[in-house]
Design brief:
It is built from 19 helices and 13 strands. It has 508 residues and is of the alpha/beta class.
Length: 508
Amino acid sequence: MPHPASPDPHDATRRAPGLPLAPTRARAAGRGQRSVLLAVRSAVTLHRLLDVLPVFDGDDRVRVRFTLVPGSRFDVDALTALDRTGARTIPWRDACHTRHDLVLTASPKGDLHLLPGPRALLPHGAGFGKALSGEGSADVPSGLDPVHLLADGEPWADLHALAHEEQALRLARHCPEAGPAVVVGDPTADRLLRSLPHREEYRTALGTGPRQLVVLTSTWGPESLIARRPRFPAELVALLPHDAFQVALVLHPNDHSRTGGFDLARWMGPALRAGLVLARPHEEWAALLVAADAVVTDHGSTGLYAAALGRPVVGAHDGGRELVPDSPMARLLARAPHLAAAHDLPTALDAARRTDLREPVAHAFAHQGRALTLLRGHLYRLLGLGGRPAPSPPPPSQRPPPHRSGPPSSPYAPRSPATASPCTASPRTPANRCTTWPPNTPRPAPARSRARPSCGSTHGPGPRPPTTRPGRPPAGRPPSWRRCPAAGPPQRSSPGGRFCCATATPDC
């Protein structure tokens, strides 16, 4: 027997016949409570929604549940991330047959029109700067495509919460049928800005010290930095002086999901052992941007967040069809210096420090510092609630795990080289104890330090050149092992050096 038509515009029985809707909405309303469903398709959308949840902090009238939207290749990591939050979840089939007072999502993909209730859609990045081939209409920015914003020719989202007026204009141009759009700002950008006072705390946890922290950011897809230059992080770690620079990498969450922790550890193991810091998604990438001295980015929106923090930005996008022309990210890359090769980084950093990126940032983020306050008003209007104080400010980004001096046990643990002070060889401290090893350079077995006839000599990675046998100290005189002052900072002059200078002669 078919179900009768319902006057409720959010009733989904006409779209998913077979089971009646559970009357949880009516019961919740009777108790003065409201049910909010967060529809998660991947770890990216989950992290975005977690930045929005503080709008409900302190309100016991709001009950939050999560559901996993089927159809994504990256839903396994989304489930894992959900489990870590301790959140309550609802199976997708049950979610489609339960009334909700509000449905929140940060991706337009999937059968979201089957979820009954008023629906609010947020972007899952900054600036709508990418168009992905094979996903909807060609050359239409991801997130603004009518293929995903319309169901049977009708808009399924009752509210689009955007970060800037320019995004609202682009939404109207690409999808005129879309529902109402409001400009509230970017909650993720506000979280990063609120984390700025914790910069030194983050740098201490990373073991950065007085060094410059250079953060590499790579988006998802065949045109990303890590897809086109997979050896780039290892090259930088090998080329930059280890006592002057620390290198970190922020991968797109989809790369973490696709590759997995085991293969990431194997693939990037040499660079990680040499000091590369690899951040987990969500909290740690934001802490790295705050702690950074400079950022090297492809065409992903993480570069816009770095520029919003005032960090010098170097572009490493090698062209292609994904970058949307005249988007904020395209404007940023047009202004930022371009890095073609790893050995050009020092020159590019000097140019980046002189580059003003305020214009593209101004076209990406409006109402900075007020996103949650503005968003709360619109969401509570959809919920039919009011009369509670404004939400608490977004919490700062989580501090990275503390620096570990021992060998890495996980690809996600921050690592930094132990080269803050000059390396001194001694009979009890082999040179390999205080040397940071370049990628793909095998470590020699621990051995006695040997005296060398000359001072200041170092050897780069690879086989040692033939040398004469080092001289021995005079008979009856105990060797005095110490670093020769004339040698200078050994690893600054040769960051890939495998041996430090030591002498047993009284002349040095």
